[in-house]
């Protein structure tokens, strides 16, 4: 009796335990099954018309993590294995990477019926910019909006911007150090300076004065809309999205108020900012650009310019801090070209400072702010010179930044050396290059170019000139004021946001020069 009950007891214990063990195993077993099926699928089903698929263990996750940590390492590793064209899985989406100048051409000069930028960026950008602009309207309307902005950057406008940016930068330089020398966190410092310079010039004085108070927080909240998680969940009722939506409304209404008060006061245009310009633009169908759209375009310009320029200026100062010889050479160039007394900079002067511009150019070669440009494929795209046709279930990806890191185009590609552009026949190359007009003036197709940090095709940047002026003025003013030296190891890149910026700690040591040009 005793023995039997003990045995029963023992058996029941075993089975309860094993049920638990089994239950615990089920997810593991399922996962193993999913992984095995995923791997088998990759090994057994090979479509000869599809580019090679980057091997991955888990469906959906695919290569998201390795790509996300260091896209260039991911691109170059797979390029060695598969060549310039291959597909990987990014959060469940098949993305075909098209490397090199040919790949960039394929993606960026794709036909309107074949590729769509708004399908990829719309969900992310529309809540930040607002409706009816950029990716929340037909492409033909975007082309007109780009024309308004590009044509608004007249030579008078650019001339006045250099003066305004120079003044802001000098003021910032005056206050950035407590004493004669010190260290600054360069990413934060440049983010602040970029906002001041862009708002003082392009955005107008009302916006600039608000950045001393309310705008900074609004900008910060709006910017949270660009967090990478929003690629998946742009509409999720998360706190950062609620703040984003509130900030968009508030900021749009600030711009509307500025426009309204300018119109009501009956004032004449009294500055070269973009608000005045857009207030006076009319679409081809005869409709004046509605104030709401002016306001949303101004937000789009603020956001588009801020990250790319601030990350680039941070990289420039970090690079300069490792090359005191170039810093001295830049100052010598200014003294030689403009005079020992270093007069206040003008746009005409800036165009004579060749090394100054090469510093921008070389920094944008290695530190392109946008490492991946993506499009949704809308109709199957045969790829010339390959057996592949990219299906509509995929996105395509171009990486101009990968081309400009290729040894075949730029020997010792990761070496930062502005003088590598010394015998660059920049203008001649540009003349040879085919030009197209998508509705916002002639732009280079860049169809065979290994250096297109501003993109190519219908979505090409319209902020290039402005960025060069902004960055050029910042460099010139900075080297007049400071000697730079490096602190610790050169920072790695933070690829986790949409714009690649230096990973903290990223610090630069400054020593104020004895004689500072006052402007
Ligand atoms: C260093 C600075 C900058 C870099 C490297 C840069 C780079 C780029 C690139 C690569 C594109 C193409 C994106 C695509 O094809 O999807 C682009 C588009 C654009 N950028 Fe810039 N940009 C810079 C500064 C600016 C500034 C300062 C502004 C505004 C004043 C601006 C406004 C725009 C606009 C409106 C577009 C067009 C978007 C489209 O048509 O889809 N950018 N930029
Ligand atoms: C508005 O544009 C018209 C031509 O399109 C021009 O004649 C006029 O001077 C502009 N006004 C302002 C304030 O810019
Ligand atoms: C710098 O610009 C100013 C104003 O345009 C001009 O008067 C001066 O001649 C320029 N300097 C040089 C060296 O071109
Ligand atoms: C593309 O550029 C390379 C050099 O970078 C040149 O050898 C080649 O001829 C060019 N091809 C075309 C079609 O322009
Ligand atoms: C710079 O950043 C470090 C952390 O990376 C922080 O401890 C320090 O206080 C910052 N310095 C300034 C001047 O903001």
UniProtKB/TrEMBL annotation:
Q: Does the keyword Nucleotide-binding apply?
A: no
Q: Which InterPro entries match?
A: CYP450_sterol_14alpha_dmase, Cyt_P450, Cyt_P450_CS, Cyt_P450_E_grp-IV, Cyt_P450_sf
Which UniProt keyword terms apply here?
Heme, Iron, Membrane, Metal-binding, Monooxygenase, Oxidoreductase, Transmembrane, Transmembrane helix
Can you cite a GO biological process for this protein? methylation
The record's subcellular location field reads: Membrane
List positions binding heme.
461
> Which Pfam family, any one of them, does this sequence belong to?
p450
| Gene Ontology CC: one annotated term | membrane
The keyword tRNA-binding is assigned to this record? no
Signal sequence extent: none
What are the GO MF terms of this UniProt record?
heme binding; iron ion binding; methyltransferase activity; sterol 14-demethylase activity
User: Transmembrane residues, as ranges?
Assistant: 20-40, 52-69
Instruction: Name the family.
Output: Belongs to the cytochrome P450 family.
Protein name as catalogued: Sterol 14-alpha demethylase
